[in-house]
Amino acid sequence: xxxxxxxxxxxxxxxxxxxxxxRFAILDVRNRDEFDAWKIEGKGPIQTLNIxxxxxxxxxxxxxxxxxxxxxxxxxxxxxxLPRSGPILAVCAxxxxxxxxxxxxxxxxxxxxxxxxxxxxWGDHYEMLAVEETQRLSILQINRTARGCLSYLLASGxxxxxxxxxxxxxxxxxxxxxxxxxxxGVFDTHLQADHLSGGVALARALGVDYWLHPYDSIHPDDxxxxxxxxxxxxxxMVFTLxxxxxRALHLPGHTLGMINPLVDDRxxxxxxxxxxxxxxxxxxxxxxxxxxxxxYRSLQRLLTLPDRTIVLPAHFSHMRExxxxxxxxxxxxxxxxxxxxxxMLGQGLDAFSAYILGSMPEYPQSYDDIRRxxxxxxxxxxxxxxxxxxxxxxxxxxxxxxx
Length: 403
Ligand SMILES: [Fe+2]
What we know:
Blueprint: E1 8-9, H1 11-20, E2 25-28, H2 32-37, E3 47-50, H3 53-56, H4 66-77, E4 88-91, H5 97-107, E5 112-115, H6 118-123, E6 127-133, E7 138-144, E8 149-156, E9 159-163, H7 170-179, E10 182-187, H8 199-206, E11 209-212, E12 231-232, E13 238-241, E14 244-250, E15 259-263, E16 267-271, H9 288-302, E17 310-313, E18 330-331, H10 332-338, H11 340-345, H12 349-357, H13 366-374, H14 382-388
Parallel strand pairs: 1-5, 2-3, 2-4, 4-5, 9-10, 10-11, 11-12, 16-17
Antiparallel strand pairs: 6-7, 7-8, 8-9, 13-14, 14-15, 15-16, 17-18
Helix pairs in contact: 4-5, 9-12
Bound molecules: fe (ii) ion (FE2).
């Protein structure tokens, strides 16, 4: 079906609009289940309509042009629900159906755009921001916005280390090549449950070591060990990276083998131990009761670090957790009062445990298989990988938001 070239927003443009807080509306034509599981979110509310395209369109004939059917349907069904001023972003799973919907809206005079590549492309979009960039040390935060996943490239003296690599590993090799860095090690803070790690594949491709705490090389469900070889991380192990040191702190609770690297005594990559607004959930191993005291002790140990220590988490739940530059970071000093989980620590283990049990989000079924892939026990193709990673991460406790 021929259509004129539809104006689009690329995932990068969508990210810019979300970061800048631009005003726009979304018409998402995926089915309700897909929409409920995962939608585009920004710092503040976005006017969003979910009308599955088969509900919206009443095709007169099988081969009727979709855009023509949109032109017929919108005045009756959506006339007062779509803004006349300002952009409307049409969204579907892969950006194919929505291009015809956007075309129909354009014919009706709306300022419509199509999300290029749809939610699939949005889910695989990465942004990069420098947390620190000096002669001595560079820390880059790689942000997979739609999923709330953060990974890091650390570099000093031309040597670089990747922490918590996502499965699209070309982003790390490309950035390192552009900057003339040599990646000398790949490091996972823990066995990820919400997304597929690129750690093993990246280390293998580069011929460098992959580092993991041995406890996290075991699938927590059936206790099967990882099928790949790796170097063991342990508490208080110190790495030299160019001119700086990286000290491994073992902080179990979210997983048994959680390691938080302390970079240059200033930056703590907290993995899923501590986020900006929340803390890591201790139930993903199916033993919330026995792992909660571990998390309690780990967070207490973390709080013995100086207040000026900058926390760099592996996840965020909302874009509003970012600072003015769009970076997800905060000092331990600021988080002591701002972070609900840390505030609960001061009330003792019993109150902390009760808080944990009352803040547990749902347990996504895909997490078992994701950990199976991340331990090398299961191989999946690209389509299955995309399916497993659909939707936002659910690694954090749900803060009790003040309404
Ligand atoms: Fe996690």
